[in-house]
Inverse folding.
């Protein structure tokens, strides 16, 4: 770690010491688990599918399901990294009001975090847009494999996998999509697409988590979309310190009390080792 990076982290420790934190994480935290982010300095250009495209264009929906059929297995095999473990440790020590994550990979839960708001949903569930039935992604994977025998083997050389399990696969034209096992309706991975709103109750719970904290710690998010940026604005408006850990600029930088451009996992591990316990009472 460079001297300047350590100085910034020491400033973060000094600023956050004795405060209960709400933590907001983004895709930059999961890069050390082998999941590329959307907008980091080393990320490749991406055009994530919008909700309108998914529901309105059958060919695009088929392409997405084919690529997701390959990509979801990659997310399922990913392991939490040291940054996820550090956040779980902060919670176990009683330093957090809770955790809000923009990631759908469930790595925080796998690392042991308990009070987690999966703001954008999770990759391991599928919902029917007609009857609202919810299914484990593993069950839908079995159905898709029966409908498309051998497809996973043919697509084994897939390239990059995006944070929403969208694998870089081109051979999708003949892929057979699965209907809802209950009503035959349209299935969608149970996470929030671009152009789709986060459920209001989930947003309200996240605001309450920020309100219950003394400060907000953002880790690995460019805050490009409003779904995460609004909590930074909310905390800043309330006069609460906001510390942002992210390589590269974010839309929240103007609201930050401190910006730390250090590797996310490394920074969180440093903070978890040095932040003191909260005073009793």
């Amino acid at each position: 770690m460079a001297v300047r990076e350590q100085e910034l982290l020491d400033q973060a420790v000094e600023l956050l010491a004795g405060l209960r934190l709400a933590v907001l994480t983004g895709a930059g935290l999961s890069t050390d688990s082998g999941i590329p982010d959307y907008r980091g300095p080393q990320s490749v250009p991406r055009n994530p599918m919008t909700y309108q495209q998914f529901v309105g264009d059958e060919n695009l929906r088929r392409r997405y399901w084919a690529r997701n059929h390959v990509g979801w297995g990659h997310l399922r095999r990913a392991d939490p990294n040291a940054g996820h473990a550090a956040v779980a440790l902060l919670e176990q020590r009683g330093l957090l009001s809770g955790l809000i994550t923009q990631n759908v990979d469930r790595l925080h839960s796998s690392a042991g975090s308990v009070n987690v708001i999966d703001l954008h949903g999770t990759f391991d569930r599928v919902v029917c847009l007609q009857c609202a039935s919810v299914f484990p992604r593993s069950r839908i994977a079995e159905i898709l494999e029966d409908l498309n025998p051998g497809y996973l083997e043919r697509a084994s050389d897939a390239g990059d996998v995006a944070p929403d399990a969208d694998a870089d696969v081109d051979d999708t034209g003949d892929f057979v999509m699965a209907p809802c096992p209950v009503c035959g309706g349209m299935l969608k991975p149970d996470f929030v697409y671009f152009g789709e709103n986060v459920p209001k109750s989930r947003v309200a719970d996240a605001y309450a988590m920020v309100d219950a904290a003394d400060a907000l710690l953002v880790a690995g998010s460019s805050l490009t979309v409003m779904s995460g940026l609004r909590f930074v604005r909310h905390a800043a408006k309330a006069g609460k310190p906001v510390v942002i850990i992210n390589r590269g600029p974010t839309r929240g930088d103007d609201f930050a009390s401190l910006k730390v451009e250090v590797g996310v996992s490394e920074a969180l591990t440093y903070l978890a080792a040095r932040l003191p316990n909260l005073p009793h009472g």
